[in-house]
Task: structure prediction
Amino acid sequence: MLDLRPNCECCDRDLPPNASDAMMCTFECTFCAECADSRLQGICPNCRGNLVARPIRPVAMLVKYPASAQRIVKPEGCQPA
Result:
């Protein structure tokens, strides 16, 4: 089950479960589309994997499987991989 993390690791922008601009890698590192495109050129700075659109969990499933509340932020900001 995906974590659906609540924010961008680079800029700390809120990314609710229904965000259409949330991007992630296979390790569930999460970024907003703006940081993924402009800062990271589509590559995760943590694992060097590609960033893809995060799927949106249907509302009914969020009740049973809620999104994560744990915020992860890189205090030094994100640098391209």
